[in-house]
Design a protein that fits this description.
82% helix
Length: 97
């Protein structure tokens, strides 16, 4: 497998994990009980934290790292304005997450 395909595979796996983690966050937040139900509330908050720790952040790191690596390897991306715009929005997504 060549380097470009490996980078693309990493980027796609990371983006699928990132999107899946966001979907799980949405589902868990939609079934969140009232804070007065302390045990159920704390359990779901723990689940949200676990998804963020074990799926969301590693996936986000993989997407950003593979995207930056793709920009370094492929010379066509060096002068492409859309690639730099994607880089800037990727960094802002990282900051927001």
């Amino acid at each position: 497998m060549n380097l470009r395909r490996l980078i693309k595979l990493g980027h796609e796996i990371g983006s699928a994990g990132f999107a899946g983690a966001l979907a799980v966050h949405i589902v868990l937040l939609s079934v969140m009980p009232a804070p007065s139900e302390l045990l159920a509330y704390a359990t779901l908050r723990g689940a949200i934290a676990a998804v963020g720790t074990w799926v969301l952040f590693p996936s986000l790191f993989l997407v950003l790292f593979s995207g930056l690596l793709a920009m370094m390897v492929n010379r066509a991306f060096h002068n492409a304005g859309w690639a730099w715009l994607k880089f800037a929005t990727g960094i802002s997504v990282f900051e927001g997450t």
